Every structure is written in structure tokens, then in C-alpha cells.
């Protein structure tokens, strides 16, 4: 495709084109011909003919009203006809894989001059590879799906799975053996919880919370019970296809009748020879609209049992409308006398509670890691906005009340980051049994703390952005999405109140009998 040659113009030449039918403006040393676009401009045409805009350098006004990405969209980029002689652009397009230079825009291990006890050169290389892949492949898809509510496309899943994305999201372990991770950047035996922490953060940086759950979170919580408790036959049938992105799986525990109080579940599995006959409903099932398998909590004669159900006769799913995008595939699932081979039982009959509990720490930590990265993105948005937005002739950050909010946002996200990293370090260095017994309480407390901090930051960010935080497009769109959806982090995987309670109950259990003031 032929590229347009850009001419150089002087400021005086541009100034001649300042009327209807002949309108040029300068934004950041680039000359745009808006003559034909003016009538199509979403902000109206009259604002473009105002004094100080038509034929003039409108950089400051432009960045008070638009995100930079507007200029990068192909339909607008082609309005550029030249550059201003002797001037250079100062606001650069984001480079795939680049590190933000905004203070606190990145965790400190990525900031210039800061040291870290946790991350190695391999984590840095891995981070760069993941961020580049996310920028090039996932971000455009995330923005599209968040808006149109469609599930992630198979083409994008295929590209992700070429890098063994689903396998990495399950964390370190023997399921990684023999796989090539991110084109070989990290060897399976090198992959640790800090790699996974990086991955969980990078997928959460688009301000698209519904899509984030649609990015195969069902696999992350639905597959581990199969990996850890499924028979060799079931594993051979299910695991390779799910890791390859050919099939999808969802965790189906919660019901309209019962959530955390698993004993109240009403989905029943009754034995009929070599089959279970399963009847019941499940609600809020992430990725359920497109899942091929359901890791399902059932009431059996003796207690609670987890059974893998394949989509087929008697299984139906319908989307539930929730506050976030239906790209998450949140479903209401109905099982109507579904016949499932007894061999699909995961773990022992009646032992479902330990099957489910075994993955809770990982799930909660995973939600926390993504929640933390979304929170940091909002801090970065606020720092940028408070600097570029002028009120009464001064930047927003010249107001003490705004600086105070920023100070609290930064402190919260840094506190969360440090705690998440400390827990991640423990996960890296503890045996599985130690993790189960020692970390359930701390991870519960960590998750409720991070989500609570996130919701406070969502409130503060809304005040900083004002009306812009209420619109799904434009300057405040990320803040709008975060404010509307940060409650998901506070609820999915265990609500804040329940997790806080869990943490304290663990403390009570471990209090020394002779502790006295
Ligand atoms: C290359 C030049 C320009 C392009 C491509 C452009 C494009 C757009 C787009 C796509 C929107 C919709 C909101 C969004 O998605 O961010 C918008 C809104 C707007 N634009 Fe422009 N614009 C340009 C220049 C200007 C200039 C120079 C002004 C100066 C007054 C202006 C004033 C506005 C206003 C007031 C809005 C409404 C903002 C809001 O609703 O908050 N635009 N423009």
C-alpha cells in the first residue's frame, strides 16, 4: 500500500486555512486537514472553528478533550497532511512491550533504578514478551469484545495457545512439562508464581473487566480439579484439548439457592448403574455460555461430590445479564436428568469439599493479582489526567484536594503490591501442604484488602475524572469500566466479608493457648 508523503508547513501557512470548507489545525507538530471531517466530528463542527483552534496549534485543547488513541485510529490518522517545519512531535504512540514512565504506573521492580528481591532477568524477558503479545494480539480483541459482548474469537485463542497461555495460567507444575512457553523465553522448569503473577497482571491492563473473565478464566478454575482428581482416562480426554484451546471448561458450583454455603446446594447426582443422573441449576457460571465441560458440585447420597459433565443432552446454558460485558460468558446452566459416566467423578464420592477447597488459594490469589494490576492502571490514568487537565488555567494536580486523593491511591496500590509479592514468594517456596494450611487465611485477607482498596480507588478516580468517569467512551472510559466492575473482584472467589472472616477464623485457630496481655 502506498504511504502518503507528508509535507512540511510553516505555522503561518497553516493559519491561512481557518474557515468552513478549508480547515487545518496543528496537534503536536502535526498538521491535520479537517475540512471535510468537521461536519462528522463527534464533538460538533462549531468547536473546531472557534478562535484559537481553526488554523492554530490546538494541542493543549485537544488533549484536554481526547485520548491520544483517537489520533492513532486509522480513520483519523489519515487526516494528517503534514508536519510543522522545525517542530517535533512530543507525544509518542505506545510502543508494544514498553514500560510506562509515569511514576507508579508500573510496579517498582520495573521502574528505573529500583531493586527487587524477587524478580530475575528471566522474569523481565518474560514480562516483555507477554506485554508485547497482549498489546498486539489481545488488546484489540479485548476492546472489541467488551463492547459487542461477544466471546473471545477462536483465532485469538489459537494464537494464545501457541504460547501455551492456558497452561501458564494454571501456574507452575507438571502440566507444563515439555511445553514451549512464550516461544521458549521461559523454560517450564523455570516458570514460577512470579511469572504467573506477571501474566495475571498483563491481562488486566486494558480496562475491560468482562473480557478479562472471558479470557478463559473458566479454564483456570475448572481444569485444576480434573488435573488433580480426574482418572487417567478423563485427563487424557479433557486436559490436552483444554490446554490447546480446542475445548473450554467452566467451574459450576454456585446456585441461586446457595453460594458459599455449599451444604445448601440443590443440584443432585443419583446413581443409576454405571451412570450418575444429574438434575439441577447453576448460576453465575463464568464462561458457561461457551463451555464444553462443567466441573460441577453435586449433592450425592453421601455428602458433596464433584463430577465432570460434558455438554450434551440435558445440558443447556443461557447468558445472564450482569454489570459487566457478556464477553465473560456468564451463564445460567440447567442440568436436566443428564446421564454422566461414573468415571467422570473427580476425587472420591462425598469428598467434593476438599476437591473444591484445593484450588481456592490459587483462584483467590489469581483474582487478586489481576485486580491489583487494574487498580494500578487507574492510578496511572489519574496521574496523567490530573497533569494534562487544566482547570481555571492550572493543571488539576495544582489542587491540594486532588493531590491528597492521588497520594492515597498510590499508597494503597503500593501496599497491595508489596503484600501480593510477599504472598507470591511464600507460594514459590512452600510445599503444597504448607501452602494449604498456612496461606488460606493470609490469601483471604489479602484478597479482601486488595479489592477494598480497588473500590476506594475507583471512588476517588471517579471524583478526579468527574462527568468523564460516567461515560463508556472518551477520556474516562477506563475509570468508568473500573468503577462499574471493581465490585467483581470483591465478590468472585469469595466476598470481602467472608474472606475477612476466614482470615480471622484462621488466626483464632492458631492463637497460642497461653497468649495473655
Ligand atoms: C484530528 C482532529 C480531531 C479528531 C480526529 C477528533 C475526534 C473526536 C472524537 C473521535 C471524539 C469523540 C470522543 C472520543 O472518542 O474521545 C471527539 C469529541 C470531541 N472533540 Fe474532537 N477531534 C479532533 C479535534 C478536535 C479539536 C481541535 C477540538 C477543539 C475544540 C475538538 C473538540 C471536541 C469536543 C468538545 C468533543 C466532545 C468531548 C466530550 O464529549 O467529552 N476536537 N473528537
Automatic annotation (TrEMBL):
Keywords, A to Z, come to: FAD, Flavoprotein, Oxidoreductase
**Which cofactor does the UniProt annotation name?**
FAD
Top-rank lineage group of the source organism:
Eukaryota
Domain Cytochrome b5 heme-binding: start-end pairs: 6-85
Matches recorded under InterPro entries: Acyl-CoA_dehydrogenase (IPR050741), Acyl-CoA_DH_CS (IPR006089), Acyl-CoA_Oxase/DH_mid-dom (IPR006091), Acyl-CoA_Oxase/DH_mid-dom_sf (IPR046373), AcylCo_DH-like_C (IPR036250), AcylCo_DH/oxidase_C (IPR009075), AcylCoA_DH/ox_N (IPR013786), AcylCoA_DH/ox_N_sf (IPR037069)
One GO cellular component term: cytoplasm
- In the UniProt record, does the keyword Flavoprotein occur? yes
Name a biological process GO annotation. Answer: fatty acid beta-oxidation using acyl-CoA dehydrogenase
Name one molecular function that GO assigns to this entry: flavin adenine dinucleotide binding
Family classification:
Belongs to the acyl-CoA dehydrogenase family.
Q: List the PANTHER family.
A: ACYL-COA DEHYDROGENASE FAMILY PROTEIN (AFU_ORTHOLOGUE AFUA_6G10880)-RELATED (PTHR48083:SF28), MEDIUM-CHAIN SPECIFIC ACYL-COA DEHYDROGENASE, MITOCHONDRIAL-RELATED (PTHR48083)
State what protein this is by name.
Acyl-CoA dehydrogenase NM domain-like protein
Taxonomy of origin reads: Eukaryota, Fungi, Dikarya, Basidiomycota, Agaricomycotina
Amino acid at each position: 500500500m502506498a504511504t502518503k508523503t507528508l509535507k512540511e508547513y510553516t505555522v503561518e501557512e497553516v493559519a491561512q486555512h481557518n474557515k468552513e470548507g478549508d480547515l487545518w489545525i496543528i496537534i503536536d507538530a502535526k498538521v491535520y486537514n479537517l475540512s471535510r471531517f468537521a461536519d462528522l466530528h463527534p464533538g460538533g463542527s462549531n468547536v473546531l472553528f472557534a478562535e484559537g483552534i481553526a488554523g492554530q496549534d490546538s494541542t493543549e485543547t485537544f488533549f484536554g478533550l481526547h485520548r491520544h488513541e483517537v489520533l492513532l485510529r486509522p480513520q483519523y490518522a489519515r487526516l494528517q497532511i503534514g508536519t510543522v517545519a522545525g517542530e517535533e512531535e512530543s507525544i509518542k504512540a505506545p510502543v508494544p512491550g514498553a514500560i510506562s514512565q509515569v511514576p507508579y504506573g508500573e510496579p517498582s521492580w520495573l521502574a528505573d533504578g529500583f531493586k527487587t528481591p524477587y524478580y530475575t532477568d528471566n522474569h523481565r524477558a518474560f514480562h516483555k514478551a507477554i506485554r508485547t503479545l497482549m498489546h498486539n494480539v489481545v488488546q484489540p480483541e479485548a476492546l472489541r469484545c467488551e463492547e459487542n459482548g461477544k466471546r473471545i474469537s477462536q483465532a485469538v485463542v489459537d494464537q494464545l495457545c501457541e504460547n501455551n497461555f492456558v497452561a501458564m495460567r494454571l501456574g507452575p507444575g507438571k502440566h507444563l512439562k515439555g511445553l514451549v512457553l512464550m516461544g521458549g523465553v521461559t523454560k517450564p522448569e523455570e516458570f514460577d508464581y512470579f511469572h504467573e503473577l506477571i501474566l495475571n497482571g498483563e491481562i488486566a491492563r486494558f480496562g475491560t473487566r468482562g473480557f478479562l473473565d472471558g479470557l478463559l478464566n473458566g479454564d483456570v478454575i475448572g481444569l485444576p480439579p480434573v488435573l488433580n482428581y480426574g482418572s487417567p482416562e478423563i485427563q487424557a480426554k479433557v486436559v490436552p484439548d483444554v490446554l490447546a484451546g480446542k475445548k473450554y471448561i467452566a467451574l459450576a458450583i454456585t446456585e441461586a439457592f446457595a453460594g458459599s454455603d455449599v451444604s445448601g446446594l440443590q443440584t443432585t447426582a443419583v446413581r443409576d448403574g454405571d451412570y450418575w443422573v444429574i438434575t439441577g441449576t447453576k448460576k453465575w457460571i463464568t464462561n458457561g455460555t461457551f463451555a464444553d465441560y462443567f466441573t460441577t458440585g453435586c449433592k450425592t447420597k453421601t455428602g458433596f461430590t464433584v463430577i465432570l459433565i460434558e455438554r450434551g443432552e440435558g445440558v443447556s446454558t443461557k447468558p445472564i445479564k450482569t454489570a459487566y460485558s457478556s464477553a465473560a460468558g456468564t451463564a445460567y446452566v440447567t442440568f436436566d436428568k443428564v446421564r454422566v459416566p461414573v468415571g467422570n467423578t473427580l476425587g472420591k464420592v462425598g469428598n467434593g469439599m476438599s476437591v473444591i477447597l484445593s484450588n481456592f488459594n490459587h483462584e483467590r490469589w489469581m483474582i487478586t493479582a489481576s485486580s491489583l494490576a487494574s487498580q494500578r492502571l487507574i492510578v496511572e490514568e489519574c496521574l496523567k489526567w490530573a497533569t494534562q487537565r487544566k482547570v481555571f488555567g492550572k493543571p488539576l494536580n495544582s489542587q491540594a484536594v486532588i493531590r491528597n486523593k492521588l497520594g492515597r491511591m498510590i499508597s494503597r496500590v503500593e501496599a497491595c503490591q508489596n503484600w501480593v509479592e510477599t504472598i507470591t514468594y511464600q507460594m514459590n517456596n512452600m510445599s503444597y501442604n504448607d501452602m494449604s494450611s498456612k496461606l488460606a487465611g493470609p490469601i483471604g485477607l489479602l484478597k479482601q484488602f486488595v479489592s477494598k482498596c480497588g473500590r476506594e480507588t475507583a471512588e476517588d478516580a471517579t471524583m478526579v475524572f468527574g462527568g468523564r468517569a460516567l461515560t463508556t467512551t472518551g477520556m474516562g472510559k477506563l475509570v468508568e469500566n473500573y468503577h462499574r466492575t471493581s465490585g467483581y473482584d470483591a465478590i468472585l472467589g469469595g466476598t470481602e466479608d467472608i474472606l475477612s472472616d476466614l482470615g480471622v477464623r484462621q488466626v483464632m485457630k492458631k492463637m497460642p493457648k497461653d497468649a495473655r496481655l
